[in-house]
Design goal:
GO terms for molecular function: phosphoadenylyl-sulfate reductase (thioredoxin) activity. The chain has two domains: 244 residues, HUPs (Rossmann fold, 3-Layer(aba) Sandwich), CATH 3.40.50.620; 31 residues. Helix content is 41%, strand content 12%.
Length: 286
């Protein structure tokens, strides 16, 4: 799909129609309307409008609010959304404990994806060497997060994902739209984009939502143990992630990363190969 003319997600069906499609004017209009809605209303719209909808989450506060809101939606349709959790094998023990608590409380299906060919941190080190995140952080992001995410999207036939990103988190998230479409055609919805950290925490406390115990120790955004620190007073929420480095995203949400470009090139190559095979078939049949 030519990104200048519109956005598409998913392969074409037998009738030749894309499964999900937004033109630029349509996307702009939807964002202008959804911008004024409460998160619960945005979630209702997503469930009604988007096939292949999943929630990607590392079980941060915003993602937990989204999960709880979905569980309480009053509507004549299925509101449970499967979760995708990327287990990098380097999460805090407190994060993994939270995953178990969430699974018991909400009963949602959680699809766990790990770096290819590894099940433990020891296996990861044996395959990729010591402290890959220090030696080559782009490669680490790819093997620990980007590739597992792409594998999940492919195997589960994901067309749209709910994320926990908010504008108030700072960094590159300051100008988030409610709906985005990345350069692979994946639709990303940020239902709490308008909320502040205090609003999120207030909801968590008021609704007894389980959360990561690290929050009580000064962490506001929790990722891998090797690249996450507590946040000092006055710093933005994600200042504890990759502290001291000019980095705010791991690559999954960074459309200009070299690995996003690599994946795009691979997709174009795949499409060219399919076209070539189709042409050969036509020639042989003729």
């Amino acid at each position: 799909m030519d990104v200048e003319s519109g956005y598409a997600s998913g392969a074409s069906s037998e009738s030749g129609l894309s499964e999900v499609y937004f033109t630029r004017p349509h996307l702009k209009y939807l964002n202008s309307q959804l911008q004024n809605l409460e998160p619960q209303d945005i979630l209702r719209w997503c469930i009604i409008s988007l096939p292949g909808l999943y929630q990607t989450t590392a079980f941060g506060l915003t993602g937990l609010v989204t999960l709880d809101m979905l569980s309480k939606l009053e509507a004549p349709f299925k509101s449970s959304v499967d979760l995708i959790f990327l287990d990098t094998l380097h999460h805090f023990d407190e994060t993994l404990d939270l995953v178990d608590r969430v699974r018991k409380q909400y009963k949602n299906t959680i699809h766990v994806y790990k770096p290819a060919g590894t099940e433990t941190a020891a296996e990861f080190t044996a395959k990729h060497g010591q402290k890959l995140w220090e030696k080559n952080e782009d490669l680490y992001d790819y093997v620990a997060k980007v590739e597992p995410a792409q594998r999940a999207y492919s195997e589960l036939q994901v067309k749209a994902v709910l994320t926990g990103r908010r504008r108030s988190q700072g960094g590159k998230r300051g100008d988030l739209d409610i709906i985005e479409v990345d350069d692979t055609g994946m639709i990303k919805i940020n239902p709490l984009a308008n909320w502040s950290f205090p609003q999120v925490k207030e909801y968590i406390d008021a609704n007894n939502v389980p959360y990561n115990e690290l929050l009580n120790r000064g962490y506001k955004s929790v990722g891998d143990w090797h690249s996450t620190q507590p946040v000092a007073q006055g710093e933005d929420e994600r200042s504890g992630r990759w502290k001291g480095r000019a980095k705010t995203e791991c690559g999954i949400h960074n459309p200009k990363s070299k690995y996003a470009q690599f994946l795009r090139q691979q997709e174009l190559k795949r499409q060219e190969e399919e076209l070539s095979q189709a042409l050969q078939k036509v020639t042989v049949e003729a």
